[in-house]
UniProtKB/TrEMBL annotation:
It comes from the Bacteria. GO terms for molecular function: phosphorelay response regulator activity; transcription cis-regulatory region binding. One of its GO terms (cellular component) is protein-DNA complex. InterPro entries: CheY-like_superfamily, OmpR/PhoB-type_DNA-bd, Sig_transdc_resp-reg_C-effctor, Sig_transdc_resp-reg_receiver, WalR-like, WH-like_DNA-bd_sf. SUPFAM superfamilies: C-terminal effector domain of the bipartite response regulators (SSF46894), CheY-like (SSF52172). The modification 4-aspartylphosphate is found at residue 54. This is Two-component system, OmpR family, response regulator AdeR. GO terms for biological process: regulation of DNA-templated transcription. Residues 125-226 form the OmpR/PhoB-type domain. It comes from Kosakonia oryzendophytica. Keywords: DNA-binding, Phosphoprotein.
Length: 236
């Protein structure tokens, strides 16, 4: 599973090292920048999902620069509550503020919460398309193109997640372990349980007019049987 990327902008090497290690332990990929110039350069190179920024270094210039052209969520670290009000009065704000000295666990919890919220907000407007299928994540709808049938009401939640995953990256072969990780309750789920869910999903797709859409890859897993994801196929 791909790790979410965080850019940590902090000029105190000791604080940066501790915070970086703690975030990496929580399974984030962390890039550290010790000043604003390096931060903006690394932001462009790594395109992080979130920025953690020390307001005093001078973080507010970095915040202003990012807010002019980017919507990436930002957590500001500060040792002064009054500084937060000053930034707000200038029309510059972060998504979250954490006052030093901070609890490392709190930083992780806030980071996870923002990223969950951001991912959810982004996905609410996503429509995934292939030659045969269109999935509207906001409305929880699945349309089979050849027959124009809506089939979401036929699918279980696990089947909907599986189909979404396949359509999201149609050329990718997913192992059973990956599908358990991304689409199912992890608990005691066994690889053969994946086979059962995929078999039922395949049968429902065939009944709706999308035969041979899910392909088995012997000894590994499954993929969508279409080589190209047509983002504009709804208009064709």
């Amino acid at each position: 599973m791909n790790k979410q990327r965080i850019l940590l902008v902090e000029d105190d090497d000791e604080i940066a090292a501790v915070l970086k290690a703690y975030l990496e332990k929580a399974q984030f990929c962390v890039e550290h920048a010790e000043n604003g110039v390096i931060a903006l350069d690394r932001f462009r190179m790594t395109q992080p999902q979130l920025v953690i920024l020390d307001v005093r270094m001078p973080g507010w210039q970095v915040l202003t620069a990012l807010r002019q052209s980017e919507n990436t969520p930002i957590i500001m670290l500060t040792d002064d509550d009054d500084y937060i009000d000053k930034l707000s009065s200038l029309g510059t704000s972060a998504n979250e503020h954490i006052v030093k000295p901070f609890n490392l666990a709190e930083v992780v919890v806030r980071t996870e919460a923002i990223l969950r919220r951001t991912t959810h907000d982004n996905e609410q407007h996503v429509i995934l398309s292939s030659r045969s299928i269109e999935i509207n994540l906001a409305r929880h709808r699945v349309r089979i193109r050849p027959t124009n049938l809506e089939i979401a009401q036929w699918l279980t939640m696990t089947e909907f997640r599986l189909l979404t995953q396949f359509v999201r990256e149609p050329e990718r072969v997913y192992s059973r372990d990956e599908l358990i990780e991304t689409c199912m309750l992890k608990g005691n789920t066994l690889p053969r349980t994946v086979d059962s869910h995929v078999s039922k999903l395949r049968r429902k797709l065939e009944e709706a007019g999308a035969a041979n859409l899910l392909k088995s890859v012997r000894g590994f897993g499954y993929r969508l049987g279409e080589k190209k994801w047509l983002k504009d196929s709804a208009n064709n």
